[in-house]
Amino acid sequence: MPKTLYICYFGLREPLVQTQVIPYLLEIIKAGIEVNLLTFEPDLKGKWSQEQIAIEQEKLLEKGIRWSCLAYHKRLSVVATTYDVFRGVWLIRRLIRHHQIDVLHGRVHLPTLMGAIARKLSRRKPKLLFDIRGFFPEEYTDAGVWPENGWLYRSAKRVERWLLRESDGFVVLTEKAREILFPESKEKGFDEGGRPVEVIPCCVDIEKFRAANDESRAEIDLELKIGARKVIAYVGSFGGWYLTDEMLDLFTAARESDPQVFTLILTQRDKERIGQALLSRGFTDEDFYVDSVAPGEIPRYLSAADVAVSFIKACYSKLSSSPTKIAEYLACGVPVISNRGVGDIDSLIVENKVGVLLDEFSHKDYVAAIKAIDGLGDIRDTCRKTAHDQFDLASVGGTRYRRLYARLLGRGDGI
């Protein structure tokens, strides 16, 4: 049985790992692959007892995943990261030897670097899968974390170029990213060196989103006292890449056009700040709901939405981005208002007629977008079908990962 080691520079309990790593690994297992997982845990000694680690290892092993972990270090960022890389390389070498690993699967740049170095230092030479996902160096410069063309950026780009040479297969999140990095792979699925390339967007388990239905809508309407009001929703974080002021401006414009509009916001942070911002713009407590809910509750709440919003800073690095919230909205049958220039969202919305794209962030454009959504009519079934066709965990994400593994292991398009 082929064996893979998935290397992830996040902690097991983090939402990203629970929603975007574990589900994909379970899909890979369906191909007859034995899966090993390495994570880096923040405050490992403080948050995890040996008993808790053993319990979690047993739970994951029952699903077919063998889990190992190391501590994640943050203080003195560059030094801490370098230390984590060296410890990661040492453990990966041991896991390659002990478990006879056939594929090293690195989630983004740093874990792939660990895998590449460990392979260089090992007698056994597993295939190296670079799950690129985002344009990591450009994300840091676009966000203002690194100076443009500074030494950190240049160093990261040198590492990236080396990884692109060393890797045996690749994953990107968008067709835009494929066009930039591997344009020759669009037709046959291989780069110019014959290495497999797959576009795998951030997928969701469509079955879980069937909870967004007429019954759950009636429940949420009653629970939040929405009644027959139009509901505009947003799920996710504010600040950083997510354009907080612009989204608040849209909510305000919608309420000015229709005083009965209700705003539904599900966010893990800044709940009080966002609530106060809405109140300062003339909203009353009866006009909105801002709270954190468990991931499993998101479909139920979104069932009450008539339209959802996704405003993300459009820049070069975001051409590689696949926002999970878009898949979640559509899976719940909710059309989307989005700005242009983020990943494949432009073509997704235009070609499938599942929302409206904004050219500018202005009051006039906000009002026009809301009217345009109304003009689309009842497209809930169209949204759900688009989610199934484009973002289904099993038929899209799982199928493409299994095909990629088959090609890496020299087994054609299926194992």
Name the descriptors.
Rossmann fold, globular, 415 residues, six-stranded parallel sheet, alpha/beta, 13 strands
CATH second-level architecture of the largest domain: 3-Layer(aba) Sandwich
Class of the largest domain, according to the CATH hierarchy?
Alpha Beta
Q: Overall mean pLDDT score?
A: 95
What name does CATH use for the topology of the largest domain?
Answer: Rossmann fold
Q: Tell how many strands the DSSP assignment holds.
A: 13
CATH H-level homologous superfamily name of the largest domain: Glycogen Phosphorylase B
Give the structure's gist in a few sentences:
With 415 residues, the chain is an alpha/beta fold. The chain contains 18 helices and 13 strands.
Characterize the structure shown.
With 415 residues, this protein is α/β, with parallel strands linked by helices. It folds into 2 domains: 3-203 and 393-408, 3-Layer(aba) Sandwich (Rossmann fold); 206-391, Glycogen Phosphorylase B (Rossmann fold, 3-Layer(aba) Sandwich). The protein contains 18 helices and 13 strands. It has helices at residues 15-29, 44-47, 50-63, 77-99, 109-120, 136-142, 151-166, 175-181, 185-188, 214-224, 244-257, 271-280, 298-302, 324-331, 345-352, 363-375, 380-391, 393-408; strands at residues 3-8, 34-42, 65-72, 103-107, 127-133, 169-172, 197-199, 231-235, 262-266, 288-291, 307-310, 336-339, 355-358. Strands 3-2-1-4-5-6-7 form a 7-stranded parallel β-sheet, with helices on both faces. Strands 10-9-8-11-12-13 form a 6-stranded parallel β-sheet, sandwiched between helices. Strand 9 (262-266), helix 12 (271-280) and strand 10 form a beta-alpha-beta unit. Helix 6 packs antiparallel against helix 7 (151-166). The longest helix is centred in the first third of the chain and has 23 residues, at 77-99. The radius of gyration is 22 Å and the shape is globular. The relative contact order is 0.11. The model has no long low-confidence stretch (mean pLDDT 95).
